[in-house]
């Protein structure tokens, strides 16, 4: 976790950037994110940034183990598995967003949250 402080006329803003390893267990990843968010807030962060796609495995640059080329035909099955993790905005579990909204409110921090959104 990196911490940067920016002085302003009205006070200071402390930004924390959180990066951690993820598994295919979404609940574990979310719990880990919350733990790191609490640590960052207790260290004085006002803005806490989580990594992209923190609730799932980050697969965007992961090639197929067979051919090591994410664009080849043997990767179709792997890509289908990963793209099955995507959800449309109206399918996002309300509890997922509301949990982080409540946590941000409780800790009085800015907490942008990303998820893998399915294209229409």
UniProtKB/TrEMBL annotation:
PROSITE patterns: CN_HYDROLASE (PS50263). The keyword Hydrolase applies. Residues 13-120 form the CN hydrolase domain. This is N-carbamoylputrescine amidase isoform 1. Pfam families: CN_hydrolase. Its EC number is 3.5.1.53. One of its GO terms (molecular function) is N-carbamoylputrescine amidase activity. The keyword Hydrolase applies. It comes from Galdieria sulphuraria.
